[in-house]
User: Which sequence fits this backbone?
């Protein structure tokens, strides 16, 4: 089918090679080559220049690539509308999630969705908030779940649950003997931060700024796991979601200390982000219904008010 060949064509370009596309799609390399050849026969022109070291789109190939994503979206939309008439929830749901959500909330939630809707093909991309926003603008995702702030024209932002942020440190850290810390205690400390574009990074920087804290130095990691491991090994302190370190807090590898600062609430809003124009997808509609009641069934910062009393 032409639509399958278009999917293969897009994957070849995005993976920058036939063999990597074959691995991604669980196809043989000859099958990938056949799909591309069928497309070239369909359009009567060469689409890709191949060499042993790289591939390059022809002018015709660039035109097709620019339209192919939109063609697939329209195809999925038509298929889902037809299935809606038959009361079958099916289709492909492309979800983008920032790291905390993608690694600590979404897997458990998707297990429930997959059980209830076995005909829905779910694809998850985990990236930082900025990258999710860009992918939504480029129509590469149906929906984004982020912990950072997005102010983009053409995108709708809807809150769906809250996430408690905590100060973590190793049990061997000089501050570990305190029951709570003040901003003065945190002056000239080494901080472990996420990369720019991360919602966790934005929250940490805003907190440090609001509390008037001067950092001695900082180390930057591109994942929450990296931040967690760095703190465990005594490299510095960090502000991170409680969801990320629940096990380590129970085991005693890490400790959490409340910051004595009346004006600062250590909670952030997690948000659903999607394009303003309706998608018409039954799969997305059902996914959103379940997502909007997620806070009632998952961990939330219910003890925040007590832990943050000055």
Assistant:
């Amino acid at each position: 089918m032409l639509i399958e060949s278009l999917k293969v064509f897009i994957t070849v370009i995005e993976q920058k090679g036939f063999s990597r596309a074959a691995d991604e799609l669980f196809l043989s390399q000859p099958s990938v080559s056949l799909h591309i050849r069928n497309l070239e026969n369909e359009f009567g022109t060469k689409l890709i220049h191949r060499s042993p070291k790289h591939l390059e789109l022809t002018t015709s190939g660039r035109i097709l690539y620019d339209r192919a994503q939109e063609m697939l979206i329209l195809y999925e939309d038509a298929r889902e509308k037809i299935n809606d008439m038959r009361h079958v929830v099916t289709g492909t749901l492309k979800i983008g999630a920032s790291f905390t959500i993608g690694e600590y909330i979404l897997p458990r939630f998707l297990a429930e969705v997959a059980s209830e809707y076995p005909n829905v093909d779910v694809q998850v991309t985990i990236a930082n908030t900025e990258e999710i926003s860009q992918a939504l603008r480029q129509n590469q995702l149906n929906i984004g779940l982020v912990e950072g702030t997005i102010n983009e024209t053409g995108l709708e932002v809807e809150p769906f649950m809250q996430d408690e942020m905590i100060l973590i440190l190793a049990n061997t850290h000089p501050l570990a003997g305190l029951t709570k810390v003040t901003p003065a205690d945190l002056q000239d400390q080494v901080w472990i931060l996420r990369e720019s574009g991360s919602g966790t990074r934005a929250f940490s920087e805003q907190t440090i700024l609001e509390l008037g804290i001067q950092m001695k130095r900082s180390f930057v990691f591109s994942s929450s796991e990296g931040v967690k491991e760095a703190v465990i090994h005594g490299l510095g302190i960090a502000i991170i979601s409680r969801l990320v370190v629940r096990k380590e807090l129970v085991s005693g590898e890490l400790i959490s200390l409340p910051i004595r600062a009346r004006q600062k609430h250590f909670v952030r809003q997690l948000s659903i982000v999607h394009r303003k124009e309706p998608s018409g997808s039954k799969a997305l509609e059902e996914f959103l219904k379940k997502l909007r009641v997620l806070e009632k069934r998952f961990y939330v910062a219910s003890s925040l008010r007590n832990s943050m009393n000055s």
